[in-house]
Amino acid sequence: MFALGRPIVGAAHAAMAVLLMVGIFVFTVPTPEFGPPTLAMALWAAVLLFYWRAAGHKRREYWSAFAGAAALLLIASDGASILLGLLVVFTAITSRGRMAADTFEAWVAAAVLVGMAFVHFLLLERAGFELTPMLERLRNPASAGGNTAAWLRLLGALIVAHAGLAVLLVVAKGWPRARTDPPPAIARAPVDPFASSFVKAFALWPALLATIIAVLAGARLPTGGVAPLLVLSGLAVVIAAGDSIELRHPRILGFAWAGLLVVPAIFVPIVIVVLPWTTATELKVAQPATAMGRYFGESFMRRTGHPLAIVSGDVRLAELVAIAAPSRPSVYFAADPANSPWVSAADIRNKGAVVVWRAPDTNPAPPPEIKAQFPDLIPEVPRTFERPVRGRLPPLLIGWGVIRPASAPVPASPPAN
Prior knowledge:
This protein is of the alpha/beta class. The protein contains 18 helices and 7 strands. Helix 5 (62-76) runs parallel beside helix 8, helix 6 packs antiparallel against helix 12 (193-217) and helix 15 packs across helix 16 (315-324).
């Protein structure tokens, strides 16, 4: 964002825009959980930067970088089609955008995006995305009031996410009123109209469209997540503030900025430690993934002589084992195999697998749905794992079983007495 803002508003105002981002909720209260919205935020920022250098500065070599970042965004986020579709619209309705797009490099980038868009919609189809229910909900007059209320709630949530930014603006503008002489103004050259339109459009358009589509899809969050929708907020505020900005109460402003930056970062680990003791809440980010991955990987190797290649069962537990196991196994979604096309039934027969589930007690019998999905499963005695912070939580008991590879030798039966 600083690299994008520097040629548009100058280095000093670009730095202000970056500092203002500390006041946005999704950045000042970080979560240890990493997911598609966090990745999409970085990729969308890169897409905007490369597009501006290609279209705004007419540096045609950046079209290839733009295509690469956009292709990754299409793979990473289900909201990528919204973001990139609006970018296409902006290019088509602005004369400068049309001129920049009428080059060989831009057409090559467009061809790459068309191919990746096909992959993107294929992934959406596998994830169960359907357009027909959305259109029916849009045409239904009875749902108009509910749709409007849900849309306003999403917009309100996005506005509330800027609460810290609003605090910084109020302090910077002089509240409480200072009785000293006005501070020197930090001025910049007038912003290019095309650049101003570019920043304001992509600070507003994606949020409006993503919330509308989320309402029609019945989702609780904007399509693609909140984080990608807010990356231009700071720069948009700086542009809207004018060509000359006065920063009053710099000392108070510094303390407010430091508080928004440091306090949440300290608060999050405290919450991770305190919640298991006070409310007996199990946090997804406080799981013994390393111990689980090592234990199930080594157990499978001892029983079969093969490295663990596939893990299945409870999706959350299977993902933790897959991340931490030394052999980096693939996850098989048994309840919906279409979501794991990289693993087939033949792969499970040939390579074997470990199946995991939450066990209520030490009974090794798997749940009925697990037994129905894996009739060849050999259940083992459930394993207890120590939580990083146990508090008042019960022991973490994981049931598990092994599907032996077809090529694994069958262990000899013990001799009868």
